[in-house]
Amino acid sequence: MKLTLRVWRQKNADADGAMSTYEVDGISADMSFLEMLDTLNEELILAGDDPVAFDHDCREGICGACSLVINGDAHGPERTTTCQLHMRSFRDGDTIDVEPWRAAAFPVVKDLVVDRSAFDRIIQAGGYITAPTGAAPEAHATPVPKPDADFAFEHAECIGCGACVAACPNGAAMLFTSAKINHLNVLPQGAPERETRVLDMVGQMDEEGFGGCTLTGECATACPKGIPLFSITAMNKEWLRATRKAGRR
Description:
Blueprint: E1 3-9, E2 18-24, H1 33-46, E3 69-70, E4 73-74, E5 95-99, E6 108-110, E7 113-114, H2 117-126, H3 146-156, H4 163-167, H5 174-185, H6 194-207, H7 218-222, H8 230-247
Parallel strand pairs: 1-5
Antiparallel strand pairs: 1-2, 3-4, 3-5, 6-7
């Protein structure tokens, strides 16, 4: 395939950015989107130009590092991560716009790379348990009802890629935060910090400058791991429970 790429280029967080146009040829339909960008960068390097900076790591849809807005959609036209998006989703002669996540809490570092350390700080605020675990316990030492285990596993699938923020018209991080809260709060190991966890993590989320949630649902639609929208309402229920309990003390 021969494609026209319109790629966001920005030297650093303080510089102005703009879309630059490139032509790439000989692109296989079996290439991943990141492999296509690798091909572009090889051509730029051979021409003595600065390659396009973009995030990647495992390239297996697990780490959440890849983070691109492709033709206006977080991760592109398929419900998957950018690294697992293949060029068969496009046609010969297509023009493809490639941009970084757009959110006030995700400042651009360079080109397509954004700083997502706001997510790390939300996790640090309460995404852990304090109970000493020691050696691995017996599998059935702490019984967990299957519905609770399924609920926890469903939310633990969040890879922290930030597609929910990029897709949200308000730049909200509610789906990410709710996934990290819910998968711990429903388990007995997370019970000691159940109230402080939701209050601290929601408080940190607000401090980071993410937008407010209006339940438009774009976050759940864009999530490559299928975190459901009701995760947000479950977190809101936890938050109300924690604030009422704190008010009675």
